Amino acid sequence: MLLIRATRFLPNPATAADNAFQSAAPGGDDAQGAAELSARATMEMDAVAAALRAVGVRVHVFDDADHTRPDSVFPNNWISTHAGGVVGIFPMYASNRRHERRGDVLEMLKSHYRVQTIVDYSGLEPDGIFLEGTGAMVLDNESRVAYVARSHRADAAVLERFCTDFTYEPMVFDAVDAGGVPIYHTNVMACVGTELALFALDLIPDVVRREQVRERLSVHGRAVVELTEEQVREFAGNAVELTGHHPDGRQRRVLAMSERARRSLRSDQVEVIERSCEIVSVDIPTIELAGGSVRCMIAGIHLDPRPGVEPGPSDAVLAINEDNPVTADGRSVS
User: pLDDT value at position 65?
Assistant: First the structure.
């Protein structure tokens, strides 16, 4: 998995208007307050990396010292990786997020893993067409379904293109909170793993569509933990299943989430989760001010490692901030 360690952190003013999960930064308006906020956020990023390495998850960390990328800690919006050696690059709504895309990240993936094809949709941004990666889409890699809450961050046309290119079935629905405000990113209300899904089905107002989603989630016997809106507000849906390893090399399924999210779960929900996954939770209150939690911080790596260069689970790849964004145009082959 990939983490971006941003040394400058501040909730992004360009996304505050439509991200109902975002909060104002306390004391972040002056230089001292901003520095203190960034320091706390950096410690939280390091804590996430340490907690996941402790359960044998392979973590790549890239430093980012660019002060003009307030949301770079959330790389899952611009990149996704897929079995078969395919990488997706996505168009993003906020203009000040578009230079989060980094060529050095792609070079690391190509040098450490088998990358066959890079599919780059970012050229759609000038046309006002956006699909913010695994924030806008929650991907079921077992049944090949892309669950998507409608929003201006998830354009229907590019979603169809993605699903054709990456062989997913689109399952699109409307989702709103109690005040009728659309859910801006699907991954705040849903997490789909191998044998388990966390899903705030009650946020889908269309009863027929809600039951279709419920049925599709559980078609192969997957357990569905239904989240309340209050739990979604605590980021319980913003979790992700990862593969870790025991010290003897045996694989283990891990569900990564924030401590705030973990505290919001009822004991019966935790019991269902722990039948499938080991919960790893980390307290990240500063980062959550930006409207995202642990899942948003993680870009999963679903690529085969290259022989002889496979890093151990405790290795980190630290890179200097790169000024140039990804410049690939259309579909390119590495």
Answer: 83
